[in-house]
Amino acid sequence: MSQCQGIKRDGSRCTQSVPAGVQWCFNHDPNRAEERRRNASRAGRTKGAGEISDLKKQLEDLAADVLSGKVGRSEAAVINQIINTRARLIELERKIREQEELNERLEALEETLGSTKGGHLYGA
């Protein structure tokens, strides 16, 4: 194994190991810049992380309110059920977005394969 030839933002050399004959790690390979850009764009569209933080905060506040006697146990149980339902909806939205992205990628691959085989996909 050798070391990546890339230079980090702070000016120091990258410390990632790369296989023999490879010059760059994923983060510094100029040929993978577009892939890195797409990944960063996808990460930026992920809204669930903020919503999950909000739900965690609500649960923390709810627990504190129950312990202090500000909120009764039965009300807290119902509020917790609502928070849990919201969490399941966030997960469902994430799965739908993921499926849509996979479908888009598959369609792009099929178009590429179709154009390289004279427009006949799967030998049809």
Got a strand count?
2
| Count of structural domains | 2
What are the secondary-structure elements, in order, as H or E? EEHHH
**Content of β-strand:** under 5%
| Sheet with the most strands: spatial strand order | 1-2
SS-based structural class? mainly alpha
User: How many DSSP H or I helices?
Assistant: 3
Shape: elongated
The biggest beta sheet, please? 2 strands, antiparallel
Mean pLDDT: 86
Instruction: Give the end-to-end Cα distance, rounded to a whole number of Å.
Output: 45 Å
| Rg over C-alpha atoms, rounded to the nearest angstrom | 24 Å
Roughly how much helix do the residues carry, as a percent range? 55-70%
Report the uncertain regions: none
SSE layout and pairing:
Elements: E1 2-3, E2 17-18, H1 33-45, H2 48-68, H3 73-116
Antiparallel strand pairs: 1-2
Helix pairs in contact: 2-3
Can you give keywords for this protein?
elongated, mainly alpha, single chain, 2 strands, two-stranded antiparallel ribbon, 2 domains, about 120 residues, 3 helices
Provide a concise account of the structure shown:
It is built from three helices and two strands; from the N terminus they run E-E-H-H-H. The chain is mainly α.
Structural account:
The chain is mainly α and 124 residues long. The chain has 2 domains: 1-45, no CATH class; 48-114. It is built from 3 helices and 2 strands. Strands 1-2 form a two-stranded antiparallel ribbon. Helix 2 packs antiparallel against helix 3. The mean pLDDT is 86.
